[in-house]
Write a structure and sequence with these properties.
mainly alpha; Tetracycline Repressor, domain 2; 328 residues; globular; disordered N terminus
Length: 328
């Protein structure tokens, strides 16, 4: 008999499969929380499996990886470097995809035990482990092309994230706070963007990076709410489980620390009222997430998590205003 606490997530998966059937997709490759069902579903079965493996159906991941890159560039005064920003977007798409492939290779055994992830390509057998490694190396090759667009100092900073990325899939097995490790990995682009533009005032970028880490811990804790029951059964650790009934307060604390460090970064760079006022829209957006978060509703948590794509844009505008002293 299946545990009762799995029924809600399994029914969520069933609804995704039912959608696929109605849409003419005859396999369960499309996971329930996919965003671009039509685009991915239109692909032939094999290319679709690789697209799903790299999470091309869920662009939220590459947006969350990209925005800190843009923040670093814009806060450093690189608002005219649109070519660089586009390259960083391409790199974010490729490297986020590579990270997802590595994660699925390492976590295939765990993914099969969690309702939301059991249909992932490697876990479900749609893509072999060997083929997944080839796909991983192909995505890394795209990232290498992007790396060559940077000056050597920024290249070294970018390469410094490799060990963090490689270790991340194992963190959920050894710590209750894999979200903290993800924060270091997923916001590393802020360092790259800043160093590509300038090599001074490192206290500014250190504060921006620290705030970005806490932002990531907050939004990924929200994301982890979807899997709390399944994770507890199969032994996956997460901040959502660790915080228990205090998730909302925990996320509020992480977001407050993010704002504090971002305010420090802005004020260190530009000591006038604009530095703090620029963060007001950011604070309002984060506050909205906390106030409207329903920790018992997976759909609500997923929507709040995805809203951080918009938060990234709001923060980018703030970095642009503060980084370009001539605006105000």
């Amino acid at each position: 008999m299946k545990p009762d606490h799995l029924l809600s997530s399994r029914s969520f998966m069933t609804s995704g499969v039912q959608w696929a059937t109605r849409s003419g997709v005859n396999d369960s490759l499309l996971v329930p929380d996919t965003q671009h069902r039509g685009i991915v579903a239109a692909l032939p079965k094999t290319p679709r499996a690789y697209a799903m493996l790299a999470r091309f159906d869920r662009p939220i991941g590459w947006w969350l990886l990209f925005w800190p890159c843009a923040w670093g560039v814009l806060l450093a005064g690189g608002e005219a470097r649109w070519g660089l920003i586009l390259w960083l977007l391409v790199g974010s798409i490729a490297m986020r995809g590579a990270g997802c492939v590595l994660n699925d290779i390492v976590d295939a055994d765990l993914d099969r035990k969690v309702a939301r992830t059991a249909s992932r390509p490697v876990a479900s057998g749609q893509v072999s482990v060997k083929a997944a490694w080839v796909w991983l190396l192909s995505l890394c090759a795209v990232g290498l092309v992007v790396l060559f667009q940077l000056r050597w100092q920024a290249q070294l900073v970018a390469l410094g994230s490799v060990a963090l990325v490689a270790a991340y899939p194992f963190m959920k097995r050894i710590t209750w706070w894999p979200q903290a490790w993800l924060g270091m990995v997923f916001t590393w682009g802020a360092l790259v963007g800043w160093i590509e533009i300038r090599g001074d005032q490192l206290a500014v970028i250190a504060a921006l990076y620290a705030g970005s880490i806490f932002w990531c811990i907050g939004y990924d804790t929200i994301y982890a709410l979807q899997d709390r029951e399944d994770d507890a059964v199969v032994g996956i650790r997460s901040s959502a489980l660790r915080l228990g009934s205090h998730v909302r307060g925990g996320v509020a604390g992480f977001y407050a620390l993010a704002l504090a460090f971002w305010a420090l970064a802005f004020w260190t760079l530009r000591q006038d009222w604009v530095a703090l006022v620029a963060l007001v829209p950011v604070a309002l957006h984060l506050g909205f997430q906390i106030v409207t978060l329903n920790t018992e509703d997976g759909d609500n948590a997923l929507a709040r998590f995805r809203s951080n794509r918009d938060l990234g844009l709001v923060m980018a505008l703030a970095c642009w205003v503060v980084g370009n002293a001539g605006i105000l």
